[in-house]
Amino acid sequence: MIKCGRPCKGEELLSRDRVLDSALQLFLEHGYGNLSMETIARDAHVSLRTIYRHFDGKAGLFGALIRRCTDQFIGSLSEDCSMEEALIAFGRQFLFRITRPNVLRMRAILIGESQQFPDLATQFYEQGPTRTLAQLAEFFARHQQAGRIRDIEPAFLADQFISVLRGERLQRLQLGLDAPPEEDDIESWVGKSTQLFLEGCLAR
């Protein structure tokens, strides 16, 4: 029997993931501007219509890759532990994800091609930093209301915490001057950064 109509939800999710997996490898191989949607569709064994239905275009597809990466750490801000433990858990996931070689290469593509393709920069910032900072700001606002953090703008705290975590080391990684850190190194890096950050904003 021939199936008609739209695929079921499970099939759509599998198709979507397959497109994202193919797109990631192809972006890394060809960059953004040199990669056609037809190549992605052919590699993922889906139709162009399927890609446009899920992602609206190439910039949306790049943004979905960034969102998938971001999803892996923004959900780690737990309310079931102390504020410091929650920030350390988030920081470990955040630094592990953004220091992986593929992610560093994607950032290099973004930096190199965003002037020519403004939608690329918009998708990256909306699906990555904007979502991350918003989650952190909400987290800090809740702890501020509970009296644990001084009266400092939550959005500013979020920005400063991310800056403390990344530090100058991310630039060295991006330039290939350092090797990607192992988990033990990240553990130490995050612990020291979080303690330093909290020294400046904890309520007295």
Task: Spell out the key features of this protein.
single chain; 204 residues; mainly alpha; Arc Repressor Mutant, subunit A; Tetracycline Repressor, domain 2; 2 domains; 74% helix; disordered N terminus
Give the arrangement of secondary structure elements.
Blueprint: H1 9-30, H2 37-44, H3 48-55, H4 58-74, H5 83-98, H6 101-113, H7 118-145, H8 154-166, H9 169-174, H10 183-201
Helix pairs in contact: 1-2, 3-4, 4-5, 4-7, 5-10, 7-8, 8-10
Based on secondary structure, the structural category is mainly alpha
CATH superfamily of the largest domain, please? Tetracycline Repressor, domain 2
Strand proportion, as a percent range, falls in under 5%
CATH architecture grouping of the largest domain: Orthogonal Bundle
Tell me about this structure.
The protein is mostly helical. It folds into two domains: 47 residues, Arc Repressor Mutant, subunit A; 140 residues, Tetracycline Repressor, domain 2 (Orthogonal Bundle). Helices cover 74% and strands 0% of the residues. Helix 4 runs antiparallel to helix 5 and helix 8 runs antiparallel to helix 10. The longest helix is centred in the middle third of the chain and has 28 residues.
